[in-house]
Structure formats: structure tokens, C-alpha cells
Amino acid sequence: MEITYKMIGGDGREYGPVTLEELKGWVRDGRVGRQTQILRSDMGSWLAAAQFQELQSEIAVLAPSATGTEGEFESVGFWPRVGAMIIDSLLLYLVFFAVAKVMGWPLNYKMSPGTTFHRIEDLMPFFIASAKQAGVSFLLRLIYEVFMTGKFGATLGKMIIGARIVRMDGSPLGFSFAFFRFLAKIVSDFTCYIGYLIVAFREDKRGLHDLIARTRVVYKR
Questions:
Q1: Could you report the average pLDDT of every consecutive run of 10 residues in the chain (221 residues)?
Q2: Cα separation, 143 vs 61, whole angstroms
Q3: I need a labelling partner for 9 at 20 to 30 A (CA). Which of 94, 123, 132, 148 fits?
Q4: SS3 category, 200
Q5: How far separated are the first and last CA of the chain, in Å rounded?
Q6: Are the C-beta atoms of 149 and 217 separated by less than 8 Å?
């Protein structure tokens, strides 16, 4: 069977399959840069075009401006991303705590000693308090992650470790991709965080949310 190739374009869409000669033509035409993500039909993961030996002669003559990127990218591994997530979580907790104090929202619902429940209505204050906390926490996370990644390409945690989030071709996220990636992270949350854990086992260091949103986390060089 003939080996074919697919690529992720600058618009985030998938193109192909095409033959090697057609792919080389795309490189010469400037459609494929050094960091453009390529999937070969006999491989199981996407890799940068510069990593394919069969494209080296075409890649070597590319002008820097043809790459559409700011230098070579190195994917961020699992543990640095865990560290960035811890930093962001602590920051969001502090903000949530401050907002709750200013607005006078209870941080937890306390039942009086000896309280008994005979009807579902007796539990409503607890449900309301829990729903309020969860809603505020989700809203803060939404605003923080979409604004920071859409505007700066990274949350504060990722900035501290020198990382940023980009599209597959290395271009900035923008707010629309940032929002879509946030929704994709909710999917990773609902997998009992397995969606985050797979970063440790993939060669390209992409989590489930990165695969869905077609993004990657790289070191800022």
C-alpha cells in the first residue's frame, strides 16, 4: 500500500491524504513549514514536517518567513504542565476566596448540631450554597483561561515555566480557539483526568483536550 500524508494547515483544518511528491510540492509552495504538523499513514502520531527525513531537501531551502513560526518548538512534558496547573489552581482559589469574602458568600454550608432532614426541602440550603460555589468557580476559570490564553497564549502558570499554547502550525490561539480549548478541557475533566494523563505517554505531549482543539503546549523560545 502506498504511503500517504496529511497535514494541519494554518487555518487548523486537516488536508490530505496526498502522496510524498504532492507534499513536497506543498513545501515548495510555502503551504508546509518546518513546524507544520504531518501525519504519515504508517505512523500513529502527528510530527513536525522537519522531523521527516524524506522532506529534508525541501525543508532545508525554506526561508525563515515560510515557516509561519518563531523558531523551533519543543513540546512541554507532563510534570512541567502539572506544575503550571498547580500554580493556576492556587491563583484561582485565592481569587475565588477574595470574591467570596467581598460578596459575603459562604465558603461552606454548616449545619447546626442535631439537625435532621425529613424532607428534600431541608437540604436546599446546602444544594444552593454548593451550586453557588461551583458556579462562581467555573466562571472564574472560564474568564481566566480564555482571556489569558487568547490574549497572551498562556496562563500565569505556563508563563512561569516558560510555556505557551499554540495551534498545530505554531500560530497564536486567539480568543475563539482559546474558548474551544477550554470546552475541550471540560471533556478531559470528565474522563477522571485521564485526558491530562495521556500527555505522559504521547510522543507529541498532547492531552485529550489538545487533540480535540488541535493545539499543543510548547516552550517559548
A1: 85 84 87 86 88 89 49 81 96 90 66 56 69 87 96 94 86 89 95 94 91 89 59
A2: 43
A3: 148
A4: helix
A5: 40
A6: no
